[in-house]
Give the backbone structure.
Amino acid sequence: MQAVPGEFLEIDRKNRANQPFNDLTLRPASERVCDFEDVVIEFDETRAKVEAARCIHCPDPAPCMVACPTHNDIPSAMWLIERGDYKGASAIYHQTSSLPEICGRVCPHEQLCQGSCVLNKDHEPVLTGQLEVFALEWERENNPYKVTKEKTSKHKVAVVGAGPAGMACAHVLLQKGHEVTVFESKPAPGGLMVYGIPNFKLPKTAVFEKWQDLLDAGVKFQGNTYIGRDKTVDGLFAEGYSAVFLGVGTGIDAKMEIPGEDLPGVYEATDFLIRGNVEDHNLPADKKEKPLLGNKVAVIGGGDTASDCLRTALRLGSEEVICLYRRTENEMPGGKKDRQMAKDEGAQYRFLTQPVQFLAGEDGRLAAVECIEMKLGEPDAKGRRKPVPVEGSNFSIAIDSAIKALGYWPDPILGKTTPNLDVHDWGLITVSDRQSFKTTRPGVFAGGDDVTGPDLVVTAMVAGRKAALAINNYLDNL
Ligand SMILES: Cc1cc2nc3c(=O)[nH]c(=O)nc-3n(C[C@H](O)[C@H](O)[C@H](O)COP(=O)(O)OP(=O)(O)OC[C@H]3O[C@@H](n4cnc5c(N)ncnc54)[C@H](O)[C@@H]3O)c2cc1C
């Protein structure tokens, strides 16, 4: 559906580009650091219409559509928002996305749609992410979306993992009329959207409301069920499922392999974020205890997870929160936007610093981290300059807690317990290609982080949708 009229003129484009720009409104740092509520103040109708009217409606193919991993027809949505047709704009997003209200909040827009907006050349990009949130929130409040079914099917499909890949796969399978049961190891659905990304970036209500849409459409849920341990993939086929989708992500935190890593007071990022951010009734039984941080906290790593940990530690009341990163700020993989918010909220940074051991105090708890200074050496295979230790530069920082935010690995359990399911690189699932998402085991499909390694909500969601279409095709031919 192309909603934008064809006769768009160059003069209109110039006028639109020259409209004044107002950036996102954030709650003041001193206020937001005291709670876990959303930091962004959502658009009202007036603000949304003015912002959408800045879109200059590039000729096809619009760069924002190309850059969006799910290829949302953003120009058409902008046109409809500008004209006050918010339901129509939401319908545009539903055509290509299963989680638009979530991607509108957590996508790295500055690298995707907004990053490719042609207005970047001389102006500021259209705030397409926040406009997506606006349209979807309007729809939920005024005229809620319902999953509609194209046909009825006799097939049952098991979806393993309730993250963005699993939720999107379940959504499209429901649309295709299949009976879907989602098996999830945690008590609640959402994957890292609930058990990872903090509430101040993505309010969990947005995920649970989306999940309710799927429940209303008939999806069944079995929480606290670890496939590979409580049941096997073979067992699911024996229960009568005709196909299985594996969207189990990469849930194992990377280790530093340095002395003192297991001391009390040293946390893994996921464990810390779950204990720190998730409401009590959704916490797994072994994670009910809140983190005991103390006043001085070191977060180790340079990605978005590190920013999330810094900001969570500040919200939990720690006074001095410092990020230790072994390269310089230029090489940091995490987004600038999140890092700036962390800085505004009080996080400190120490670059070219590599922890070499965690040291215990007399009580046996973590008391300090010994580090070595680094300098940048030759570029590695990816072109990033390698950090090299400066000999004899060791020093210690007194800390009460440390949080390791270093990256994630897959859990190898499914490869070990599923005959003929090929895995590689410590457990990533091998698929035939990124269109069909077929694994080496007939009837078993996989997509999301468990295939690509850690990536994004939007890429996992796209994989789940594509895999669902491939599963539907497979079932039609059974
Ligand atoms: C702290 C943090 C912050 C992030 N911030 C962002 C962000 O701002 N924007 C963004 O786009 N991306 C972000 N990401 C990345 C994003 O969350 C992931 O790329 C995305 O969630 C991957 O989706 P998935 O469905 O493949 O896996 P997951 O979200 O990991 O979901 C997998 C699900 O499978 C379950 N599971 C695992 N094994 C089993 C099993 N054997 N049986 C049953 N269930 C199982 C898990 O409990 C989990 O619920 C962040 C990640 C982290 C860790």
Observations:
- The first helix runs from residue 10 to 17.
- The chain has three domains: 10-142, 156-251+410-476, 257-407.
- The chain has a mean pLDDT of 95.
